[in-house]
Amino acid sequence: MSFPTPFFKWRPHPWHGLDVGKNPPHIVNAYIEITPFDFIKYEVEKTTGYLRVDRPHRTSSQPPSLYGFIPKTYCGDRVRDLSPNSKKGDGDPLDICIISERPINKSEIILGAKVVGGIQMVDHKEADDKIIAVLENDNVWQSAEDIKDLPSVMIERLRHYFLTYKLIPGEKSKVQIDSIYDREHALKVVKASILDYEDEYGS
Fold this sequence. Notes:
Blueprint: E1 27-34, E2 40-44, E3 51-56, E4 66-69, H1 77-81, E5 88-89, E6 95-99, E7 110-123, E8 126-127, E9 130-135, H2 152-164, E10 175-181, H3 183-201
Parallel strand pairs: 5-8, 6-9
Antiparallel strand pairs: 1-4, 1-7, 2-3, 4-6, 7-8, 7-9, 7-10
């Protein structure tokens, strides 16, 4: 029996072993860490590639969309240069939020996502952009081309989530959202993160 090509005898690391997507920066792969049903912040452990419990949410805030990252991206100097109030990139893969009509309640999945915009978030003076995308073959949202094609309430929910998901009572928030940007700028951020990855880890 012959195995398909490519075939991985061992599970590839979701950040370094998966492909960035079939048509980046427009259509990218997304590895999902958190679903809209989760009250726990999960995050891929950088050494093993497995999901680790980062923290339970302190508030009742729930992620309004699927949330994960784009493989083989890195938030370094180029991403920082696109975020005027940031001192550096956060050193993580580029985060992505994916909107779909049908509820998806499983994490640790890969999906194709069409980039339509993003959130310019700064966390502790580090660039921590959140790309906004729609499920590539979604029956309702696949026609969306830009952030303006999405209902404003969806963007409001994403904005609220990221402003509150790290809140600690009695402490001043270190998170700020500088802007909500369109597809054109989002494509620049994705391109920058791919080049930052190549600088950091090689092509």
